[in-house]
Backbone:
C-alpha cells in the first residue's frame, strides 16, 4: 500500500469516527437548547433565578409526575376523558393519534414491538428485503384473503423509523437467526455493517 493510500485510509477512518460523533453531539446540544429556551422564562418566574440545565431537571420531574398520575385510577379516567374529547376535533384528532402511535413505536420495548427479523420477497420475486414482524394483525385482511397474514415493517435506509408495512402470508416469511439490534445496524449503515 502506498503512502498516499495510507494517508487517505487514515483520513477516512477519522471521518467515520467524527461524523456520527459530531452529529450525535449536535442533536443533543440542539435538543438541550430548545428545551432550555422553552422552559427558562417559566422557571425564572417561579424560582426567581435560573441555572442552565434546570429545564431538563424540571422536564424530568414533570414527566415522572405525569407518569405517577397516569398510573392512578383517577388519572387514567381523566386521561381517557381528555383523549375522548380530543378525538372529536378533526385536526387535533389526527395530530394526537399520530403522535401517540409514534411515541409508542419509539418508547415500547423492542421485544414488545418487534417479534422477529425476516426476509420478504419485495419489491418483486427473487429480491429480498429485510423486515420486522410486529405483534399486530389485521383480522379482516386475514378473513378476506383466507390467509394468515403477518404485519411486516420494511424500514428504509438509513432512517429505520420510516418505511412501509406489508401484509405477508406467514408461510412466505423467511425468519432469520438475527437479533433486532444487528438488523437495525445493517439498515442504518445501508448494508455496510459486517456481521459475524
Residues:
Amino acid at each position: 500500500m502506498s503512502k498516499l493510500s495510507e494517508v487517505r485510509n487514515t483520513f477516512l477512518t477519522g471521518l467515520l469516527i467524527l461524523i456520527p460523533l459530531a452529529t450525535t453531539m449536535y442533536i443533543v446540544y440542539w435538543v438541550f437548547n430548545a428545551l432550555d429556551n422553552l422552559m427558562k422564562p417559566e422557571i425564572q418566574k417561579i424560582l426567581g433565578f435560573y441555572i442552565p440545565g434546570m429545564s431538563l431537571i424540571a422536564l424530568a420531574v414533570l414527566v415522572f409526575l405525569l407518569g405517577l398520575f397516569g398510573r392512578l385510577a383517577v388519572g387514567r379516567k381523566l386521561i381517557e376523558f381528555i383523549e375522548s374529547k380530543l378525538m372529536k376535533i378533526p385536526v387535533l384528532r389526527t395530530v394526537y393519534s399520530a403522535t401517540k402511535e409514534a411515541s409508542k413505536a419509539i418508547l415500547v420495548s423492542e421485544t414488545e414491538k418487534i417479534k422477529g427479523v425476516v426476509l420478504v420477497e419485495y419489491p418483486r420475486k427473487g429480491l429480498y428485503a429485510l423486515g420486522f414482524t410486529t405483534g399486530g394483525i389485521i383480522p379482516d385482511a386475514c378473513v378476506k384473503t383466507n390467509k394468515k397474514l403477518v404485519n411486516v415493517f420494511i424500514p428504509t435506509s438509513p432512517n429505520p423509523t420510516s418505511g412501509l408495512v406489508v401484509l405477508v402470508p406467514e408461510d412466505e416469511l423467511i425468519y432469520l437467526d438475527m437479533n433486532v439490534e444487528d438488523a437495525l445496524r445493517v439498515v442504518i449503515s445501508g448494508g455496510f455493517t459486517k456481521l459475524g
